[in-house]
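Retro notes, item 3 of 5
We never archived the inputs for the zinc ion complex last cycle. Fixing that now. Sequence and ligand:
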Amino acid sequence: MLEKPAGSAAANSLTHRIARYLSESLRAVAFTGAGISTESGIPDFRSPGGIWSRYQPVLFQDFLASEKARREYWLMKKEGYRELRGAKPNAGHRALASLEAAGKLRAIITQNIDGLHQDAGSRRVLELHGTSRHCICLECSARYEPELIQDRLEAGVEVPRCDSCGGLLKSATISFGQALPVDVLSEAIDLCIKTDLILAIGSSLVVEPAASLPLQAKQNGARLVIINKTETPLDDLADLVLRDPIGASLTQVVQHLGLGLPDS
Ligand code: ZN
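Structure as it came back at the time:
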């Protein structure tokens, strides 16, 4: 299904330029943030009304140390899971999957935990902040389906524990105070150092250290394209900045390249 094209002729000429950059690039990568998933109905948890305006994020150290903190953590996760459940990838996710399949994009580095890039068909997805698609036992590393844990939470369990060892369970997302996964981060840095084009999409580029990745790419000679509805600290450095809706813009880009979108 084609999305409504983003309106103006100016926007159209910008998406033409992005398509040209992609066709001239050999090692393009995308960097994505919450903005690409808002069109799938997932609220940006940092925005007003988002989940972090209602709950204080629980620090990893507090999660480990305090039953009260763990209850808070799971209360927030229970509500957050209701927002994620059932979300489908949108045209933006599908356009990036299409670019990868066509050999125009090497990888996606994402701040998102929703798994929608993979649902859209993207294969090389580096999840800097982990994933909400499973829960993990901090003792024995057993994995649990989040749906199963959600059922327990909805049934009144406040702090779910591992069935096999009784250890603490936690979503496989990265909490504040918890180190980013070293292997993922080093692969992301390597991609950004070697890339010749980085598309920074739907990220305000302020959360560190993730946000410095597009900067590293730029400083190593890559072109930098920013598609985000609000200003970012890197706008002045960018080769192109687009404020239009992501799904419609990326749809135009893949169409300019003569590609289609994978089925939703
Ligand atoms: Zn366990």
